[in-house]
Amino acid sequence: MPSLLSLPREIRDKICTYAILAPRNEPAPLTTSIPDLLLERRHLEHPRLSAWGNLSTVKYRPDNIVASSTPLLLVNHQLYAETISNLRLIPGARTYDLDIIVLDEILLVPTWLLVPVLDVHVDRLNVTFRIAGRYNHQDRYQEYGRYKGFAIGDGAGPALSWHIYSLLERFFKVGPIGECNEETKDRNVTIKTLEINIETPSDVAPSRFMPPKSGHRRRKSEDDEPDDAVLDPEYFIDFVTRNVRWMLKMDYHSANYGKIFYEYMDRIIVRRDGEVELECDLAERFRDLKFTDSFWRNQIQFDRWKEQATKKRRAWGLRVLEEEKKEMVENEEE
Fold this sequence. Notes:
alpha/beta
């Protein structure tokens, strides 16, 4: 029986490409019981994040994912060299897939499905949000306190928005790895395109979709709502797009957090069932970003941040656009 190395290079490359682009995990069925879904998952304390609230509602797998290319890199020197070469050429070799279950409005359950190679420069991060349940079993989540789900804090916005933000912030810091410690250094992982897709549960009748219960006063209409109601995906997509826009505004409340969007990404696309709901070219927005009194203490502080962010974007291979020629001409005339 021929070995892999005895095959022609062309055939061997095809086999290696298939292995590199093969998913490492499958998304868990939404019908999975909560104990099974959360088995061996926990909150990861490190690295420290700036996101607000009780981030223990984000349930990670603590183990480090093994990139699809890693086994090939460890076979021998020949396959190592060929795999490195293939990783430079294969379209999609730096595309990551992340599945996130929004469980009962409260918990986020992320699973890395595809990580071809661990790299600090990612071409595309595909994030799929799938909705399971609604906040129908309040006793189940008392341990997380009052500020959870869609509950609003003092000047902090809904808790869930920060929990989603923490997932992205952690990725910028350390990528898709699991447990780390205080000594783990920031890897500064960049994303050329972040694509978020919110899926409508296919096996749920539209009549069961309801607005969130967490963080809202009880409505009289709740008496007529089904016991097995599910968070309305239309509400959730509006929630996600509003929060993306809010972060990108860079106003008094959001600038300290939204600035990492401009430092680490080129583009954000938000979809509902594959259809585009929002598309933001961050390189264009960054170019056009101007000083405002609403956040920055002075023009010097803003200019210093933008200069540093520009250097980061150039060094990390992100797009840096020139100022519009029209503005340059107008400035010269002044």
